[in-house]
Write a structure and sequence with these properties.
The structure is a single chain. By secondary structure, this protein is of the alpha/beta class. The chain has one domain: Rossmann fold (3-Layer(aba) Sandwich). 34% of the residues lie in helices and 21% in strands. A 5-stranded mixed β-sheet has the order 2-1-3-5-4. α1 packs across α5.
Length: 156
């Protein structure tokens, strides 16, 4: 595995589970070297996967004040800055990644989706559901771009 696409969030809190929904809608048709995993809220349990990857694409709900369904794309260094919107799971993700040091730390990209409804339930709101295909495409594009830039040619 060179690229890990990690779906974050709480599946039981509607739009908060968008990362898990994205992984489920991705299917198994991924380029060689790419692994998509439903991490949910168990970031520490997935730490070994983060350590094995060269690049991690984390997908999560992200409250940034935009229109529900808006997709945001950041590097980890952007999200860690105080003036940039915070992911609903940023602390857990950043804490886990903080445990990783040195050359084993992967490149981190975050795809966030502006939630509309964070409440009990398993279905996504209409706005976030409508954004799901674009979100999946963005994750595939990021993975494909990374593989191409690092010398692995694929048809993502």
């Amino acid at each position: 595995m060179r690229v890990l696409i990690a779906g974050l969030g709480n599946l039981l809190l509607r739009d908060d589970g968008v990362g898990v929904h994205a992984i489920r809608s991705m299917g198994n048709d991924l380029p060689p070297g790419v692994l998509a995993v439903e991490v949910g809220t168990a970031v520490l349990d997935a730490l070994h996967l983060f350590e094995e990857a060269e690049m991690v694409i984390a997908i999560d709900a992200m409250k940034a004040g935009g229109v529900p369904g808006t997709i945001y794309s950041f590097q980890l260094s952007d999200v860690a800055a105080p003036e940039v919107p915070a992911s609903l799971h940023e602390f857990s993700l950043l804490s886990a990644l903080g445990l990783m040091e040195g050359p084993s730390r992967p490149e981190i990209a975050i795809l966030g989706v502006e939630p509309e409804v964070i409440d009990y339930g398993m279905e996504l709101s209409a706005a976030v559901q409508a954004a799901l295909p674009r979100l999946v495409r963005a994750a595939r594009d990021l993975a494909g771009r990374y593989l191409k830039e690092t010398g692995v040619h694929c048809h993502a």
